[in-house]
Predict the structure of Mixed lineage kinase domain-containing protein.
Amino acid sequence: MPLRYVRSKLTAVNALSVAVATTAITKELADMAQFPPAKAAASLLLVIFQTIQNVQTNRNDCYRLARRCLSLLVDMRDQMDGRWEDAPESLLRNFAKFEQTLEGIRNFMTREADNKWRTRLIRKSTIEEALAEFNLKLDDAARTFQISTLINIQLALGGLSQSSSLHVTVGTEVSDLIDLTSSPVSIAPSMSFSSVEELTDDPEDGLYQRSRSDEFVLVSESVQADIAQSISQAVPAASSDPELELLDHRGFRRYGQSDVRLKGKFRRGTGWWASSARGRVEGKNVLVRTYEGPAGEVAKYRDTLDAALYVGRQLNLSETKTQDYVENTTYVIDDEGKVIMGLPPPNIANWVSWRNFGLAHSIRDIYMRILPNRGLADQPHELSNNKSIELQQKMSHLAVLARALLPDDANTIEVSARLNEIVDAWEDEENENNAVSLQQIRLAALSSKNHVKMWRERTVPAFKYQIGDLGYIPTGKDFSSFCVLQNVVADGLVAFELVQNATGWQGCWDRGFRQNQDLQAFPASFNAYGWAIVVPPGTEQDVQVIHDNCLASPTDGWRFLLDHGRSLAASHNVKPEQLILVTRVGTDQQFKIHDFRQMPFMHPPNSHQNIHQHHHPAFGMHNRPGFGHQQYGHQPHMHNSFMAQQLQPLIFYLFTSPDEANAPYWSEMPMYQPLPKGGQRPDLRGRCVPSIGW
């Protein structure tokens, strides 16, 4: 089964809630735009919220990031209202840096919203990393304001040399303060918030403005140590652990036990997935496997669009080595319909292998193994199967299309181009159920000109159906109950380009071995074909002749059903998927001819040679020459010319035709004459007996 790309769409309920929230935020930003110091930042943030409406993937993450920006900007406005004239230059510089961060977020979201959904899906991991980086920048901005405030307070109270604990009242609500530092990076452990009672009721406090809610005290025991620790935690790249840097470089992500919430065991409990379970990490459904190795090597591989090429690119593998990974990987499908790869152990890097096929064949074989019956589908459905007919038909058609889109003799670039056609066509259309339909997959296969599959029925009476017959099979019946509704060619609905083919074989048994050879037909009058058959004496020759009349391009039949199948089904009161169009008809005929002539018994040459004795003949006696020594020397074996001519191979002519009116027959002459209706077939000379079969 090819990979399923899922694009979440905004439902009516979510659209209403987002619209209400966006309206309220827009009003708040419009009011803030009247505040001159925050006018530029408010304008940037308004553009960010408007851009989020065009984002499909990662919309919640973008919305959460914008809410954090708004919360931080509102706190600045509340705290600095009426105090901008006396604000220190360091605080103004920090506010300018915050505006630069907003401008970077605005540019990033605008650029990603203009890209196609397929491009954003391919760059999914890059977008997630960018969102996490912007969260870190907001944390840095929040800490910068806090640190700047602490430094100014300490300078006002006596300088940096004071080492006693400093109690500072921060007048902000609980929700705002928590949302301000709600990124994945934690606050320094030495900085803690504790609830205290109101310290003073002086309304003329020139440093801080209080709120009616509970207040918090930020306790700093060592400002410089806290700053260093906060920076170390905020910038993971600054870590000196080389193993962690290697994992980040290779695309791995490290999770702790507290980050994962298990939901239950995985439904497949064998092989590599025996110790796997379903879980949830950062709001995403994942597969969790219990790891029993060293704690420093625990890692999770990120999901990608093309896992095979991603592994080869990340690990710098050649195509042959990538095939080693692909062919020795275990695959499962999770609850969301994604194909999950369980990579083989690292010692596979030491393997040496040789193949006569490329990576495209290995990838196609993976999908064929996932499909039922390894993707082999001779018929659309089988009555003996316990599954529903509709499900069997979908799986059979999907298997045929998978083989057409993933050929084993093409390279990965051609395969990727064909799959991109499906994704692009799906992205351009409005799909309600967010799933790729069989029609879209079939259109992509038809465009690739590799979809030549036509369903075949082996046992069909000759001359019963014609090309263009449109019908269906009643529920619970087989093809013997096929009901013809109309002939679309005879009715003038379509004109197909047809091709006639005639093939034949001749065979016989010789000393316990079967010998076959192809026959070459020569055209005759009245749409007939002639076959020259050589019959050696004493042999029985079998002849098989196949006539077929079919569409020059099988894609014409598929396209006709895709374009007109729905309307034709409605006119005959049947389902569109029940329609069957006859695109190939023909005959498979068997013939025999037996030559009853036998080879006569003959002495081997020189079996009675004369023994010449050296003696003098008697006087008057005639000396007769020995046997085989006539006047003109030795005579060859089978010197009887009549017998030699009688045992030569005979040549007969078999005439066949794809038309029912022209009956087949054997003849000694290469000229074809149609047999009159009810007329006798000509007899053959000698002791040769022909037979006519179907």
Residues 383 and 476 are 7 Å apart (CA to CA). The chain has 17 helices and 22 strands.
